[in-house]
Design goal:
Largest sheet: none
Structural class: mainly alpha
Order of helices and strands: HHHHHHHHHHH
Oligomer: single chain
Distance between the termini: 55 Å
Number of domains: 2
Strand content: under 5%
């Protein structure tokens, strides 16, 4: 897959952009603390400014950008149509209905009586047969993993059961095809992704990135106002001043702008 470029609005946020979001979130959460809010009001930081900060933060953080918009066309090339997906579930369900009972019967036949119940119970633990649909993917995936382990099992007769089932059709080709189908079905994005156009993805990404600059300017404006007025501990809590010595220090319970 081609890596995203600087010109791609849908590219992931870089380190500096993520840092901005972290700083703004820290500021917004702490500025409303009971001991800081009165100081903020005295600096003309009111409810409207607070709401504006949260609005810009939300947009820049991607709250208006659905998760499905982050899945590009290139990432969906393996996606199945609805009919293909249903056929895939049906095929796994048929596999399950055929081979689950046959495997249990083979285990009961070949594993010696002393180990028989433990072998059967262990093989099918947390793996009930499922109705046709998404849940069958998980049950068949477990079956494939446990069947592969049978050949090397220490339970007397388990390897013989594995060999017998392989001769009857549960061979490498069949198992490989079913494993590939399981992988493909697991990789399917949410159905809603299919209805999202590339233009919609681009538009929502552009909307998110368009909020970063206004958010940065909003934050710098208020950070500068607070930094020149509040004391050290309040500034650290708001994220507008670095911690001395690189280690966090406990903030005083209530500080005022006049603290040195």
């Amino acid at each position: 897959m081609t890596p995203p470029t600087e010109a791609d609005p849908a590219r992931p946020l870089d380190a500096s952009e993520r840092e901005l979001l972290e700083l703004v979130q820290r500021f917004l959460v702490n500025v409303s603390a009971p001991d800081i809010a009165p100081v903020a009001l005295a600096l003309a930081y009111d409810g409207a400014e607070h709401a504006e900060g949260w609005r810009l933060f939300g947009l820049a953080a991607g709250t208006s950008r659905p998760l499905e918009h982050s899945i590009s066309a290139a990432q969906r090339v393996i996606a199945m149509s609805g009919d293909e997906q249903r056929l895939g579930f049906r095929r796994l369900d048929e596999f399950e209905n055929r081979w689950f009972p046959r495997t249990e019967a083979a285990l009961r036949r070949f594993v010696d009586a002393k180990h028989r119940e433990a072998a059967v119970t262990g093989f099918f633990a947390d793996m009930p047969q499922q109705a046709e649909g998404p849940l069958v993917v998980g049950s068949v995936e477990k079956f494939l993993a446990r069947f592969a382990q049978l050949a090397g099992s220490s339970a007397p007769g388990a390897a013989a059961a594995h060999a017998s089932l392989a001769r009857r059709g549960l061979d490498a080709d069949t198992l490989g095809a079913i494993a590939a189908l399981v992988t493909k079905l697991k990789a399917q994005p949410a159905a809603a992704c299919e209805a999202v156009s590339e233009q919609q993805r681009q538009d929502s990404a552009i909307c998110q990135r368009a909020a970063l600059d206004p958010l940065r300017l909003w934050y710098r404006d208020w950070a500068e106002t607070f930094r020149g007025t509040v004391g050290y501990h309040v500034a650290v809590r708001l994220g507008i001043r670095e911690v001395k010595g690189g280690r966090p220090r406990a903030a005083a319970p209530a500080e005022t702008p006049s603290e040195p």
